[in-house]
Prior knowledge:
This protein is α+β, with helices and mostly antiparallel strands. The protein has 7 helices and 13 strands.
Amino acid sequence: MRKRNFLPDPDGLLLIDKPKEWTSHDLVAKIRNHFQLNKVGHGGTLDPNATGLVVMLIGRGTRLSAKVMGGDKTYEGEILFGVETNSQDTDGETTAENDPSGVTEEQIREEMKKLIGDQMQMPPMVSAIKMNGVPLYKLARKGEEVERELRFIHVYKFALKEFNSPRATFEVQSTKGTYVRTLAHDLGQRLGCGACLSELRRTQSGQLSIDGAFTMDEVIQWDRAELAKHLIPIHQV
């Protein structure tokens, strides 16, 4: 059990460039224990194998949780065509394989345009959304599939960056709660070959950018005074 620290926490936001295989909870635990902080949170999760911007909320910065989580998000990533999985990304079990060789760059761009704007999105079964208090991914592990409520989202941008069959890199900007792997899955369905997400990196959350983020290797070299120097003050947010 961690001893309580009676020193006041510094207050503010810390931008972290999350590495693969870390969860947002891992980041919270590491920063809380390393600096012996009392209040640490985060402003939005990323899947373990996704990388990029996670906003850490420290001290009174935890009061900004709803504001940070509610901001629009920007991502870069890679889609693998011809493969469908139960999680809609390459971490899941393959459920279908098709030949994507007939898909053209022009077709991809055209179908991406159709996924821009207001829409109702079906969350994947492999997600942290809870049904009667149980995360959907736990039900999915048991082979169960349950009805999920459609979610209203808005996609501002879904743009192809490079296509080298069967993979394509892209950029997407959307409202909170958007499952980018579902966008990849839906794109594959529209193209008739199936698809899944193979890489994902968050580059922006609201007005906060990955350009101002630190790696965990850097952060764990600091002491509390150094941490305080690198926090974004609450009044700036």
